[in-house]
Amino acid sequence: MMRCMVIDDEQLVRELLEDNIRQVPFLQWVRSCRNALEATEALQETPVDLLFLDIQMPRLNGLQFLQTLTDPPLAILVSAYEQYALEGFDLRVVDYLLKPFSFERFLKACARAQELFRFKQNDRLPATPVEDFFVNVEYALVKISASDILYIEGVKDYVKIYLASTNKPVLTRMTLKALEEKLLPPAFVRTHKSYLVSVKKITSVKRDLICIGATEIPISVSYKANITRLLK
Q1: Are 113 and 2 in contact (CB under 8 A)?
Q2: Nearest-CA neighbor of 116 among 99, 96, 133, 92?
Q3: pLDDT at 223
Q4: What are 129-132's contacts with CB under 8 Å, separation 24+?
Q5: With contact defined as beta carbons under 8 Å apart, do 152 and 176 qualify?
Q6: How far apart are CA 106 and CA 53, in angstroms?
Q7: In a 3-state reduction of DSSP, which class is residue 163?
Q8: How many helices (H) and strands (E) does the chain have?
Q9: Is there a contact between 211 and 205 (Cβ–Cβ < 8 Å)?
């Protein structure tokens, strides 16, 4: 069962979406909001699995709203304007419903959301963090011990792995996301789109910085919640 939130500034559209949701056995309507600002507060009180999200809304549109969320739920965009479709899919939304839409088209989007939801649930099964792994460095495989890592910096298609045992970082061609999937929390924490930090190596935390000895690593707004959870 997917818990759903409707976000649309048109009352008739909200009511239509609520009614459609109630007719789908694997969906549960939990809340509706008139705009993105109201939805921001609502999500803090009521986490959901799927958003039905209008694009054209006052002050903050649906696409801008999605970009403010650190860990957004699945989202189906709802709009009368097809020109936003490409930008929506760049944000990895589930589907794009063009108003007016039929119940059949609505159900098709929901089925796609259910498939992705099941995949995400399976992906959240507990994983075992690695202790050692190998990376490619200049035609050789170099062994990295997770316990030796201070922090990792992402630089486009490369990462720099800073180690306690050496002053020179290890440079390898891979993404920070790929390493983050190996080095799981609570041992490692993402502080910024470009930085992954070993929790045990943190010596102090300032307002917008994490310190590992004399090295200062930025904390971005998007990842500040990670640090808040760490300090509880």
Answers
A1: yes
A2: 92
A3: 86
A4: 129/182, 129/183, 129/184, 129/187, 129/188, 130/182, 130/183
A5: yes
A6: 13
A7: strand
A8: 7, 15
A9: yes
For 44-101, write each residue's pLDDT tens digit: 898 999 999 998 888 888 888 988 888 889 999 998 877 655 565 566 788 888 889 9
Residue 26: CB atoms within 10 Å: 12
C-alpha dihedral, 69 to 72 to 75 to 79, nearest 10° = 0
Q: Name the 3-class secondary structure at 89.
A: helix
Which two structure tokens, joined as six digits, stand for 105?
């088209």
pTM assigned to the model: 0.54
Measure the CA–CA gap between 192 and 217, rounded to whole angstroms.
9
Residue 20's alpha-carbon distances to 29, 95, 123, 156, 176, in angstroms, are 9, 16, 28, 43, 40
The tokens describing 209, both together, are 């910085």
Q: What is the rounded distance in angstroms from the CA atom of residue 4 to the CA atom of residue 176?
A: 31
Domains identified in the chain and CATH numbers: 2-123 (3.40.50.2300), 132-231 (2.40.50.1020)
DSSP H helices in 157-206: 176-182
**Contact (Cβ atoms closer than 8 angstroms) between residue 19 and residue 44:** no
